[in-house]
Amino acid sequence: MTAVQRTASTKPALRLLSLGAGVQSTTVLLLACEGIIPRFDVALFADTGWEPRAVYANLERLRVHAERAGIPVQRVSAGNIRTDALDPMHRFVSMPLHTLNPDGSRGLARRQCTSEYKITPLKKAARELLGYPHPRRVPSGVFAEQAIGISTDEIGRARDSGVRFIHNIFPLLDLGFDRARCVEYLRERGFGATVKSACIGCPFHGNAGWRWIRDHDPDGWEQAVEFDRAIRHGYPHASKHGQLLRGQYFLHRSCKPLDEVDLDTPARHPQLIPTPATLDEEGAAPPGHAAPALRSANQTPREPPALRHEWEYFHDHRRRAERHLKSEGGRHCHISCFVSDRRACPFRRPGHRRRR
Length: 356
Ligand code: SF4
Fold this sequence. Notes:
Blueprint: E1 14-18, H1 23-33, E2 42-46, H2 53-68, E3 73-76, H3 81-86, E4 98-100, E5 106-108, H4 113-130, E6 144-148, E7 166-169, H5 171-175, H6 179-188, H7 207-216, H8 218-230, H9 236-240, E8 248-250, H10 276-282, H11 305-327
Parallel strand pairs: 1-2, 1-6, 2-3, 6-7
Antiparallel strand pairs: 4-5, 4-8
Helix pairs in contact: 1-2, 1-6, 7-8
The chain binds iron/sulfur cluster.
């Protein structure tokens, strides 16, 4: 990785894209290739090593496409989540597995995999590209701007990076793109086959997601079924070290072996318009035919009223924040934040204080 060292400034030393190679981040990359949003110095793909074949195929296609526009696509990785989880010699990998306790109660194991396999490698790469690899201190005022593909229908996921040297930005929120608009945009540019990016064995898949893997990625399905069996009584590393699980682990939310679940059962309460509740019901939108596929043919609205309200609020909040930053010389991130959990405010920056 070529490092760039810059002096402290209010401008980013680097413009990065966190590329998941799914629908939203692919849209952001194509927007930059077309010059609709500023170009990126590099697009970073954090590879967990266990994505569907279609995601890797899209990544390869994007690499060629982006390089023509002068944006290099680089892969960063902290290892292979599947082989690490099954390796008795490897430190415990914490995936959000569904647990069935001896008393019949259910739960969800702690989730650390996103941080370990996605966020940490991206932060490490950003440091290296800025020219301050760990443990060197990144000087105050030197930072990378990192674009994240979050569309308006998933605004709740917009977060600050948590570190001073990375400022997250959300181009799709700025442009008002929801997932359906992204799908439409990709289709118009010949990227209509872009699928959702997530690990093959992600316990957050719903029936539709599992069904998609079973029907479109037979090797991936076989690996997921094997993985599901292998983790039934805990991760091999934990078992080897005497930390036996009292209950059982499962990939599917029903706490049944994956190959015994009836994935073809229709949703109990089908909804015409996908809402976060629908996605929760199913766990996650299916790869490749996410939100739009769940909509009935004669329904046109793109977002349910609650989401539209949140989106309007977001814009209002942003205008106020920007006005305030200007008048205060950038000392505070915002005047009065109406986001109930202030830590969730996408404009919050480490070091900024709230005005009293
Ligand atoms: S897709 Fe699922 S399993 Fe993979 S890193 Fe994210 S939460 Fe973990």
